[in-house]
Every structure is written in C-alpha cells, then in structure tokens.
Design a protein that fits this description.
Layout: E1 14-16, E2 21-28, E3 34-38, E4 43-45, E5 54-56, E6 58-61, E7 65-67, E8 77-79, E9 81-88, E10 95-101, H1 104-108, E11 112-117
Bound molecules: copper (II) ion (CU).
C-alpha cells in the first residue's frame, strides 16, 4: 500500500538489517520456471549447473516435480525445487527496493516484492 504522497510502499514484504548476511531458500512449487531477480545487489547462488557457487543477480528456479497422488489421481502433487542463495547486506545501502520474477509476464501478474534494508 502507498501512503498519500509516498514514493515507495510503506509496508515492505521483507525487512533486513544492513550489515547482515542472509541465506534464503527459493522454493518453486509450480510447473513453470521462474527467474528470481533482486535489485541493488548481486548474491551467491549455492551452485550453478556445473555444481560450483556463482555470483549472480538472477537465479533460474527449476520447475517442481510432479508426483502421483494416491488419494486422488486427478490431482498430482508437486515436489518443489529448492534453490539456496546467500545475500550479503553488508555493503547494500539502506533503502527500499524490489525483487521480482524476471519473466516479465510473471512480474506483470504480481510476482514482485518490496525489500527494505534498515
Ligand atoms: Cu516467474
């Protein structure tokens, strides 16, 4: 929500402390690939396709895996993919910025959040 006259939202989705290092797990419980992207910083993705840690600003989140549902075969279950990232807020300026899916159709449909560094 925006306050009257405000230029940034007053209610961020995530608040972090400047100077901290955070581990986030990006969970994709859908059957579509997503591309996590955050502004103002790069971060470490636990491993790339070669199995090595890599510094990035966008992470592709693999699709979830379909599993049979023994209770109702018409509704299969989804085992989510989990991607570990390490975000270093020691040198990120205080302020408010966005993270979002870098697939623009997803972003336009609402896959966007606000983060505030305090
Ligand atoms: Cu997406």
């Amino acid at each position: 929500m925006f306050r009257a006259g405000a230029t940034v939202p007053s209610n961020p989705d995530i608040v972090v402390k400047q100077g901290t290092i955070e581990v986030w797990y990006l969970i994709n419980a859908t059957l579509e690939t997503h591309a996590f992207h955050i502004h103002q910083m790069k971060y470490v993705q636990e491993r790339d396709y070669s199995g090595q840690p890599v510094t990035v600003d966008t992470t592709f989140m693999p699709v979830g895996k379909l599993l049979p549902n023994s209770h109702d075969p018409n509704y299969p279950l989804i085992q989510p993919s989990i991607t570990k990232v390490i975000l270093d807020f020691r040198h990120v300026p205080k302020g408010t910025f966005v993270f979002h899916c870098h697939m623009l159709a997803h972003e336009d449909l609402g896959m966007m959040g606000i983060i505030r560094v305090e």
